[in-house]
histidine kinase
Amino acid sequence: FQIHSSILYDADNNRLGILLVMNDLTEHVRLEGMRKEFVANVSHEIRTPATAIQGYIETLIHNDVSLEQREKFLKIIYRHSNRLNSIIDDLLMLAGLEKSDSSFQFEKFPVSDLISSATNIVSVKAEKSLIEIVFNIGENHQIYAHPLLAEQALTNLLSNSIKYSPKGSTIRISTRYIHGGLMVEVQDEGCGIPLENQEQIFERFYRVDRGRSRDQGGTGLGLSIVKRVMNIHGGNATLESKVDKGSTFRLFFPGE
Ligand code: ADP
């Protein structure tokens, strides 16, 4: 608590009493803690690839390295610079989502438009992993959403499903009307998420397996973007998952 005190006087300057104002700082302290943790995480996430890039470039400049090693180092540098770019893209995206919810314009449109645009974006990655995406979309199902943000949320879910699923598996996308809104569901046959990690999974930089996420080019920000996008829509993102069986992520978009 933060306490301010002041003495109160009436119009004739007689002392009336003391005014004590107590501010509950719990929320403030919590937010400040989250901000500090976020900054520390960002620094760490950016510094790791930046330091690696610098180290490999220094080695290339100052040492005699074989052609073979040179190619290997350049590939590592390329991978780390891609990583830096992804982190920056995701951070800029999150920053852009910090505006008030009401500044985003929603439209009503066929959910098939959303699904085909998101699927197109991930199609090359899916093909590389021989992953088939199958659809069960209600005919004429309409969604009330911000088209680009909804596309971003669905793309993030799909690219996660591709990243964390074995070659040759199937991803199912379905839609259904529920409680005055539309549910979009993405189901995969991937590695799944242990129950004890499911609550934190939507937090920034949280990953179940840091190494695996890194290897897959993950930033740890994808699901926090999904969560923010769904908050903007007044909806939510939920998860049901079983280790080694697969995960189902659901996006709920309230109606108009
Ligand atoms: P990342 O860039 O690491 O994928 P996300 O915020 O998108 O970051 O996801 C956070 C973590 O949640 C991932 O690192 C992974 O451990 C887990 N995860 C997300 N989606 C899936 C999925 N479909 N199957 C298994 N694990 C997943």
User: Anything to note?
Assistant: The first strand starts at residue 2 and ends at 9. The two ends are 42 Å apart (CA to CA). Strands lie at 2-9, 15-23, 107-110, 132-136, 142-145, 170-178, 181-187, 236-242, 246-254. The helical segments are 26-62, 67-96, 111-128, 147-163, 195-198, 210-215, 222-232.
